[in-house]
Amino acid sequence: MLDYTNYAGTTTQRSGYDEGLRTYMISVFQNMGVALAITAIISMLVASSPSLMQVLFGTPLQWVVVLAPLGMVFFMSAKIMTMSVQSARVSLWVFSGLMGVSLSSIFYVYTQESIAKVFFITASLFGAMAIYGHSTKKDLSGMGSFLIMGLMGLVIASLANLFFQSSALGNVLSYVGVVIFTLLTAYDVQKLKVIYYNVGVNSDDVAQRISVYGALNLYMDFINLFLFLLRIFGTRRD
């Protein structure tokens, strides 16, 4: 498994313009952008077929739909550094397709207009934090432990709320989730720069594979931020 924490406390950087870093970061965001596009297309196609939705979410197959993306994340985390660059990219595309199937259900819960609105809100917020994480001179590594602890608490509280079914707690968790994944976006972008300066400069192949895994991390930041914002600002269907 690729261990980002090995580099979390390292702030080695180079001054001035770095063409290698620029190419590396463009690759990260290109991979992420393609993954998001695949997810959007697959989710809309699946949601447009009521019969397919019934099969996927009205039968025990729903557990496959829910758990398959999680399994793919564990697989990529364990194998990313031994895959070829192309295999890593294909794995990311497969994962994003599985996420598209899983997220198709939001079109039956929220109106398309509100989904589009929240998507653009998410893109704007994510973009602003990514720019901050890339350009700031402040070391954000100190936020890492705080954010991981907050994320673990968010997951535990969300699981607990499946039993309590508290709308008030659900609302609080949505706002907490927005804060956590907003900060994680800046943190992860800066961390990708730090990793590049430690391993990417000396190995183009490693840099490309890390760019795919970095895209996976930023993709998940974006998707989670989108889902929490959707809970806050989304308009539910009658």
From TrEMBL:
Keywords: Membrane, Transmembrane, Transmembrane helix. The chain crosses the membrane at residues 24-48, 60-78, 90-109, 115-134, 146-166, 172-189, 210-233. It comes from Candidatus Bandiella euplotis. It is a multi-pass membrane protein. Belongs to the BI1 family. This is Bax inhibitor-1/YccA family protein. It holds the Pfam family Bax1-I. It comes from the Bacteria. The keyword Membrane applies. InterPro entries: Bax_inhibitor_1-related. It is found in: Membrane.
